[in-house]
Amino acid sequence: MRDPMIRNQEDDSFVSYAEELAAKVRGCAEADEHHFAGEAVALLLDASYNLLTIPKELGGRGANLYQMLLCQERIAEAHASAALVMGWHVGIALGLRLANAWSPARYAQFAKDAVHARAMINACGTEPETGSPSRGGRPTTTAVKVAGGFKITGRKTWATGSPVLTHILVSAYMPDRARVGEFLVRKDSPGVAIEETWDSMSMAGTGSHTLRLTDVFVPDEDLTDEAEPGKKMKRSADGSGWLLHIPATYLGVGNEARAYALEFARTYQPNSLSHPIGQLPHVREKLGQIEIERMSARTLLYQVAERYDRAEPADRLAMRGDLAAAKYVATHAALRMVDLSMRVVGGNSILHSTPLARCYRDVRAGLHNPPMDDSTLSMLAGLALESS
Ligand SMILES: Cc1cc2nc3c(=O)[nH]c(=O)nc-3n(C[C@H](O)[C@H](O)[C@H](O)COP(=O)(O)OP(=O)(O)OC[C@H]3O[C@@H](n4cnc5c(N)ncnc54)[C@H](O)[C@@H]3O)c2cc1C
């Protein structure tokens, strides 16, 4: 059955595009597992997936949030690490546009770099000293004013996609202004280095290494935004709907586990039975629970995305509770989908010869991408308490 989330011809062609790409990258998943998913990312770049959310008039594919999620879910089902690498880029490219965070000229130049030079962007905010940037800690990375620009020095960890990034949004404290700046840093600038520190049980192929900046000169015009320490930048002023690339990616992991469990239940027939295990009541109950998890998570995720796409820019921030709830529900559903799939498969599920061990490890990472559960629950509680 075709996905009921496909609303029209345009969605359908995005889905067909993503399914074609998913078929190409699927084979790379196991080979890439312990090092950067370079092969899968290269295949996606060859197919211009980095242009997914760039507007059509600037040479991109013009996907809105909803369509980006349809694509991310499919790429992630085939290769979760490659999907997360691309997800940050296509998400930020969408978010910058929707929030009008950059001048039209700067965005047009970035789009041109994406079209002609495979530009890839990510935001590197996390530092060992601050933990998650979403909690508002002041960066220890500093930007010191010099003639014509700034010199940035510091260290950012968890820099997903670092091997292929060309543009990096770096947060740094500006001591002379007592404010935090967000700078657009070219990875090929002198003083930028990637230290290959990424060694994770989850999303192992994302190349989320350490970005080391040593006296990196950034011209004045590449200070893209600034704010008081602890306050959000302009590109977050619309609630950051683009962050839904994260739950879509982890739902993709849940889908991969589900597909494996379904096929196993259809075909595995031990000689104690006269039929495959898919006919056993306890197996059917687990398969049914997986469907409930998946349907409820997808219904909420896509409903919120559709409303976000339709909302006036000024009304989007008011959806921050819905966005956070969609992320919470989808990442938890994905965790349960993987767990239930493993229970369906039984002991074989822990063998490296099945994809389930990788799904089990990958899906866990969703808890540690923003917004984190405690922030979501506390925000929702606050919104509920404030409502009449
Ligand atoms: C696969 C993956 C890819 C990532 N890619 C990127 C990326 O590209 N760029 C990037 O910048 N980051 C990235 N991150 C990092 C992510 O955004 C977080 O910074 C990181 O996971 C650490 O978050 P944390 O909340 O566990 O850490 P911490 O903030 O160190 O928190 C550790 C523990 O302390 C608690 N805690 C800490 N401070 C507070 C507080 N103020 N209030 C309440 N509780 C607190 C947390 O709840 C948690 O239990 C990535 C993470 C993952 C898992």
Automatic annotation (TrEMBL):
<dbReference type="InterPro" id="IPR009100">
    <property type="entry name" value="AcylCoA_DH/oxidase_NM_dom_sf"/>
</dbReference>
<keyword id="KW-0285">Flavoprotein</keyword>
<dbReference type="InterPro" id="IPR006091">
    <property type="entry name" value="Acyl-CoA_Oxase/DH_mid-dom"/>
</dbReference>
<dbReference type="InterPro" id="IPR046373">
    <property type="entry name" value="Acyl-CoA_Oxase/DH_mid-dom_sf"/>
</dbReference>
<dbReference type="Pfam" id="PF02771">
    <property type="entry name" value="Acyl-CoA_dh_N"/>
</dbReference>
<dbReference type="Pfam" id="PF00441">
    <property type="entry name" value="Acyl-CoA_dh_1"/>
</dbReference>
<protein>
    <recommendedName>
        <fullName>Acyl-CoA dehydrogenase</fullName>
    </recommendedName>
</protein>
<feature type="domain" description="Acyl-CoA oxidase/dehydrogenase middle">
    <location>
        <begin position="124"/>
        <end position="216"/>
    </location>
</feature>
<feature type="domain" description="Acyl-CoA dehydrogenase/oxidase C-terminal">
    <location>
        <begin position="249"/>
        <end position="365"/>
    </location>
</feature>
<dbReference type="InterPro" id="IPR013786">
    <property type="entry name" value="AcylCoA_DH/ox_N"/>
</dbReference>
<dbReference type="InterPro" id="IPR036250">
    <property type="entry name" value="AcylCo_DH-like_C"/>
</dbReference>
<dbReference type="GO" id="GO:0050660">
    <property type="term" value="F:flavin adenine dinucleotide binding"/>
</dbReference>
<dbReference type="GO" id="GO:0003995">
    <property type="term" value="F:acyl-CoA dehydrogenase activity"/>
</dbReference>
<dbReference type="InterPro" id="IPR009075">
    <property type="entry name" value="AcylCo_DH/oxidase_C"/>
</dbReference>
<keyword id="KW-0274">FAD</keyword>
<feature type="domain" description="Acyl-CoA dehydrogenase/oxidase N-terminal">
    <location>
        <begin position="19"/>
        <end position="94"/>
    </location>
</feature>
<comment type="similarity">
    <text>Belongs to the acyl-CoA dehydrogenase family.</text>
</comment>
<dbReference type="InterPro" id="IPR037069">
    <property type="entry name" value="AcylCoA_DH/ox_N_sf"/>
</dbReference>
<keyword id="KW-0560">Oxidoreductase</keyword>
<dbReference type="Pfam" id="PF02770">
    <property type="entry name" value="Acyl-CoA_dh_M"/>
</dbReference>
